[in-house]
């Protein structure tokens, strides 16, 4: 299939077009900026709260205090905004009525989907590690300021956790892209997407076996092992958790492409 000029748009052209859209649609930039603000604010709050909790705890509790548990807690909350960035990359076109024009310019719909996914990937591969780094530095600074144990940036495992956190957020951004194509409406995609990401938080409401399965194998929960401080009982190692999340996101993107290709825009 070809565009209006009779020439099929190349992937580079599609990628440049999607990057231009991302830059010029203000709401996506605002949400991404908000994700940084939320990350830093929650890192401050978690660092302050956990530092106070350490000072008020018993000697036995202080001995078991792990500053890594404070380092990246903000990422579990900011993932909702990162997912929304991915959603808006798609649904903003549906809302503005420009998706038909995009399909006309890039008739190969798989190339259009890949262009949007590539833009989110490139952006989050930069922004994700910066959010994780900011969460670590702010939270550990607050712990140290209150006299609680803290970790330096060069502590074993910390650089890997920062990069793992960045990769986790990148996958969550791609998850948002898939939800945007599947549902086409911002409110529905953000609401359902957030519910699915936070489902493991509702595990205590489920029967014991189901709760254990959700906490261990639900993609968002399993993927958090990429930046988790240590393996808890029954949790997956980081490489399996990342593989499970990656496979789930890839399956959603494949489903999104199939739906996008088969229906009218």
Structural class: mainly alpha
How would you describe the shape? elongated
In whole angstroms, the N-to-C terminal distance is 16 Å
Average pLDDT rating:
92
Which percent band covers the strand fraction? under 5%
Beta strand count: 0
Major β-sheet profile: none
Order of helices and strands: HHHHHHHHHHHH
Low-confidence stretches: 1-6
What is Rg? 20 Å
Secondary structure tally, helices: 12
The percentage helix is over 70%
Concise account of the structure shown:
By secondary structure, this protein is mainly alpha-helical. It is 75% helix and 0% strand.
Can you tell me about this structure?
With 265 residues, the chain is mainly alpha-helical. The chain has a domain at 11-194. The chain has twelve helices and no strands. It has helices at residues 11-24, 26-55, 59-63, 68-71, 75-96, 99-105, 109-145, 158-183, 186-198, 208-217, 219-223, 238-262. The chain is elongated. The chain starts with 10 loop residues before the first helix and ends with a helix. The chain crosses the membrane at residues 27-45, 74-96, 117-138, 158-182, 189-206, 240-260. Keywords: Membrane, Transmembrane, Transmembrane helix. This is ABC transporter permease.
């Amino acid at each position: 299939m070809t565009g209006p000029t009779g020439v099929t748009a190349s992937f580079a052209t599609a990628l440049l077009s999607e990057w231009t859209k991302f830059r010029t649609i203000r709401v996506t930039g605002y949400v991404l900026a908000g994700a940084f603000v939320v990350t830093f604010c929650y890192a401050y709050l978690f660092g302050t709260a956990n530092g106070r909790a350490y000072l008020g705890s018993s000697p036995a509790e202080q001995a078991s205090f792990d500053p890594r548990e404070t380092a990246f807690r903000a990422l579990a909350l900011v993932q909702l905004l990162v997912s929304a960035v991915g959603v808006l990359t798609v649904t903003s076109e549906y809302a503005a009525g420009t998706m038909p024009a995009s399909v006309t310019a890039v008739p190969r719909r798989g190339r259009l989907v890949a262009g949007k996914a590539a833009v989110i990937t490139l952006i989050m591969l930069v922004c994700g590690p910066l959010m994780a780094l900011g969460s670590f530095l702010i939270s550990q600074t607050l712990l140290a300021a209150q006299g609680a144990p803290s970790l330096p940036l060069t502590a074993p495992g910390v650089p890997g956790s920062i990069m793992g956190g960045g990769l986790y957020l990148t996958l969550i951004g791609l998850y948002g892209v898939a939800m945007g194509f599947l549902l086409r409406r911002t409110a529905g995609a953000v609401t359902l997407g957030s519910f699915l990401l936070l489902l493991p938080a509702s595990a205590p409401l489920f029967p014991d076996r189901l709760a254990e399965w959700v906490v261990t194998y639900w993609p968002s929960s399993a993927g958090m092992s990429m930046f988790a401080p240590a393996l808890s009982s029954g949790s997956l190692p980081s490489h399996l958790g990342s593989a499970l999340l990656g496979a789930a996101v890839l399956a959603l993107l494949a489903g999104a492409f199939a739906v996008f290709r088969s229906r009218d825009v």
